[in-house]
Amino acid sequence: MRRVLFLCTGNSCRSQMAEAIVNARLGGEWQAVSAGTKPAGYVHPKALEALAEIGIQHTGRSKRADEFRDVDFDLVVTVCDSAAEECPVWLGKGKKIHHSFPDPAVTDNMNDFRSVRDDIERVMTELLSKF
What we know:
The chain is an alpha/beta fold. It has one domain: Rossmann fold, CATH 3.40.50. It has four helices and four strands. A four-stranded parallel sheet has the order 2-1-3-4. The chain is globular and about 35 Å long.
């Protein structure tokens, strides 16, 4: 099984949604985890609600990127510009790519969470199916 790490700054919205979506939709081929460069310490309730709307019950926790320094990944994906700047070099194994998604927590609007969720599902499913 291949492994992917999704990195964000707070690890409360985008990277959590990516982790949950990949594990739910591509779990037979990929194992996903997520982490943050400056974790918020919680998963945003609206991110969990957006996932539940598409049948995904996520029980993740906000984690520090350092927890995964010694873990080998096939792919490391930064999902926000800040994380890409703070982690220009991933010291562990794995190809690093960047694909930024807007932070729905900025507006705290449920429609923004849904839009980002749908974009993550579309982009990551396509990306990982070709990797």
